[in-house]
Amino acid sequence: MTHLPDGRFVDDEPYDPQQSILELERRDLDAPNWLLVWRKFRTHKLGLVSGVFLLLSYLLLPFMGFIAPYSPNYRNADHLYAPPQSVRWVHEGEFIGPFIYPITAEADLETFQWKFIPDESNPLRIPFLCKGDSYKLFGLIESETHLFCAPEGATLFLWGSDRLGRDVFSRILYGAQLSLTVGLIGISVSFFLGILFGSIAGYLGGKTDWLINRMIEILRSLPELPLWLALSAAVPSNWSPVAVFFIISVILGILDWPGLARSVRAKFLSLREEEYVRAAEMMGASSARVIRRHLLPNFMSHLIASATLSIPAMILGETALSFLGLGLRAPAVSWGVMLNDAQNLASIELYPWTAIPMLPIVVVVLAFNFLGDGLRDSLDPYS
Amino acid sequence: MTPLLSVENLSIGFGAAEPAVRGVSFEVMPGETLALVGESGSGKTISCRAILRILPKAAQIRTGRVILNGEDGTTILSDLSERQMRRIRGNRISMIFQEPMRSLSPLHKIGNQVSEVLWLHRGASERQARRTVMEQFERVGFPDPERAYNSYPFELSGGMRQRAMIAMAMVAKPDLLIADEPTTALDVTTQAQVLGLIKDLQRETGMALILVTHDLGVVANMAEKVVVMHKGRVMESGTAAAILRAPAHPYTQQLFDAAPAIPDEQIVGLPPSQEDLILEMKAVSKTYTMRSGRGWKGEKLIYACRGVDFKLPRGRTLAIVGESGSGKTTAARIALGAEPPDPGGEVLFRTRAGADPLTVHKMDRTQRTAFQRQAQMVFQDPFSSLSPRMRIQDAMTEPLEIHQIGTRAEQRERASEMLSRVGLNPDMLKRYPHAFSGGQRQRLSIARAMMLDPSMIVCDEPTSALDVSVQDQILYLLEELQETLKLSYLFISHDLAVVARIADEVAVMRQGLVVEQAPPETLFHNPQHPYTKALIAAQPEPDIDRPINLKLVALGAGSPDTWAEAFRFTDSVIPSLVELEPGHKVRCHV
């Protein structure tokens, strides 16, 4: 540094006045949007873990028959309301790998309940990759091989059995197939309707906008639960479980779109004011092109985040309907249908494991919320 | 004499990265004004925030001390606990921020927000605080302090909001006021008045001031000492007189050269020839209806443009100058056909000399497409004018795709050619816009506008979001393009000094009306209208011997019904535009 005679301080490090305008200012931001979003999302640990968990859950859906030891509707008439059996590793100080003690049901003549007594002298190893009930892999390939099944002559109720002697663990796995996909189908319906109406309202404005907005307000002012009830009551009772399932998810989607349409419209209105959209219009781009090339790509990420946040509502909706006996019906298996069994206070008190299906619901809903939260935080990576 | 505040060897870094501010030291004497000058990213704001310890979360102070000397001894601010620090903020040191809208809470009345300082630091009762705040409001120039006390921020104009912020910062009589670009978001005339106010208050109370700014003109008007910062380092510091008279560091010299100034004109300019007009606007008006605030009252009419006549000769530049809300952008949008004028108005466009004029708002599809190829626009904000999802290449070729010109390879060819034309490197085509600086992005927008080989470009404040040195380069680029390609510009700006350089004719607008129109030489040599005079007087010049003449500003800056008799206009009585000398029109009663 230099001090001039008039008391001035002047920095004397070399300075290049003709700094190149060819130099990139933010080299770190020179990447497509999705990469920047991913880099930021990676730092959101909870969201990342939830995302991995959900991804695994969805990937495993076609293999549920392989993982589950029983088929969903297999009844073991001797073991009604059997409590969960624990998997053990060591018998009388000796390690013999995963095994169980077989249980036998005995009637307790004082309480008039079945009592399940483990036979602790007879450890039975759990067989792996064994033959069991037949199921369809991916819903197509017939197979009988299971990851593990009950040992010969014994039962394997990891999370107990229900009123009819069906394995709760296996049913939860099969239930995931319906309960998790109901959200996806529902959200696709609501996505389609939401984007359609939202973008029409946002882009055209004026009378159309007014009309769609009032429609949304009317839909949102209807009490949700009675409407669900009414709509699902209208589903003919002789339809197959798959058809009912499909209709239920469509109903959930139809009632969910107004919220999405509103956020689409709001986003549309704010994006339309962006100068790159104005620039495209001034170049003579048609409305369709402006929407396709400029508006949609720029708010798709916001939509995905808000969709992720509304899938849990769908899952909970299905659960609520099925719990009330108005959604899916037996023989279809979903978490809501299973909870239907746990409606009775007395049975929860005596057989608390019948309420276990609540656990996966809580975990999945939380995971979706964390994931959505993480996505929303990383949507604006330009800073 | 001990300095009031000294900053010693301050270094600040974000996360694990290289420090953003390195070894910054400066001192402020009691009652003195220190200007921190630098461009965006120079670390001037961060350094100021470090004094009050209100840095963003990711930033940490790596080294350095901040020492405050006062009547009660010496305090080392960088060692205080958060609790002790709160007693300093707003009480002994207060701060004014750049955006007056965002720094006031929209849900609280102005009066309450200002009184809060007194409740917190003085334990004043509500009535006491109210009295003090009213006095302060009167002093910062609110015509009706009572009304200001009870109004919400959105009810006040930008200048008034900034006055409220100043009142809030001053009410506890701090020893030091830090003003972070207090006037950057304001119009020139308002800026002059707010600067004058800060100076008066400073003289009255004897407080010291740290003024953060990028404008050497503001520095020349306000500061005794100057610290010039660049990329987190101090380039030069010393007394304002010494630095502004003879900059010693090349960076200061560069800033000085780039600072726009209104030239001293000795001669009257000649009006551009009116023969080959590319664009002609005849009696263009635009009225918007707005629902009034009260439920059942009728709709309110807003006159964005009133009877605008413009003639733009081919290859020339017509500049429209005015404050925000003067109707200059509306006029430009109408010229491009983005909005229809009120009935009676007409916009004519001639593609070639002597060709039949196209009426911009009555074109059929093919004519419209042809017009869009001829007339393009460059926008104000370089950060929002390029879609963040598109590679530069896609953004550049889009106009060609829309008009279906050329094959994919030809389009790319043209894009890289245009990129070199505006001084960028063609291998930037594969990059994404957010990697570029503001100046580079503005070059990209210009390149995109040039893709269709237009003959007219509407520039909507193309340099107002840029640093002065970058502004200079962009103006140079625009001039060069005009010369080689015979472009015609409709140039919109709020800054007379910028326009002085590029325009062949200037129209000054106020409240939708053109109040004066002339070639720039004439306008600066012989301004007639009080508003033009105010605009010229309010322009801060980087010349310490030419302070802003606040009297002239006050004469023209107010609302049109406070102007001198000859120029006054109201909603119903509007004087007409009179040609005083050839090519010099003024709106006045004769």
Automatic annotation (TrEMBL), chain A:
- Record keywords: Cell membrane, Membrane, Peptide transport, Protein transport, Transmembrane, Transmembrane helix, Transport
The protein's topology relative to the membrane is:
Multi-pass membrane protein
Q: Where are the transmembrane segments?
A: 46-68, 172-205, 225-255, 303-330, 350-371
GO cellular component entries: plasma membrane
Does Flavoprotein count among this protein's keywords? no
Localization per Swiss-Prot or TrEMBL:
Cell membrane
**What Pfam families does the annotation carry?**
BPD_transp_1, OppC_N
- List, for all copies, the residue spans of the domain called ABC transmembrane type-1: 176-372
Tell me the superkingdom of the source: Bacteria
One biological process GO term for this chain? transmembrane transport
Signal peptide region: none
UniProt record similarity statement: Belongs to the binding-protein-dependent transport system permease family.
Q: What is this protein called?
A: ABC transporter permease
TrEMBL record, chain B:
Q: Which residues form the ABC transporter domain?
A: 5-256, 279-536
Q: Which GO terms describe its cellular component?
A: plasma membrane
Please list the GO terms describing molecular function. Answer: ATP binding; ATP hydrolysis activity
Q: Which SMART domains match?
A: AAA
Q: Which InterPro entries match?
A: AAA+_ATPase (IPR003593), ABC_Ni/Peptide_Import (IPR050388), ABC_transporter-like_ATP-bd (IPR003439), ABC_transporter-like_CS (IPR017871), Oligopep_ABC_C (IPR013563), P-loop_NTPase (IPR027417)
Single GO BP term = peptide transport
Membrane topology according to the record: Peripheral membrane protein
Matching Pfam families: ABC_tran, oligo_HPY
What SUPFAM superfamilies has UniProt attached to this entry?
Answer: P-loop containing nucleoside triphosphate hydrolases (SSF52540)
Keywords from the named record: ATP-binding, Cell membrane, Membrane, Nucleotide-binding, Transport
Chief location category: membrane
Entry's localization field: Cell inner membrane
Q: Which domain of life is it from?
A: Bacteria
Read off the PANTHER family from this record.
Answer: DIPEPTIDE TRANSPORT ATP-BINDING PROTEIN DPPD (PTHR43297:SF2), OLIGOPEPTIDE TRANSPORT ATP-BINDING PROTEIN APPD (PTHR43297)
Q: What is this protein called?
A: ABC transporter ATP-binding protein
| Species | Ruegeria sp. PrR005
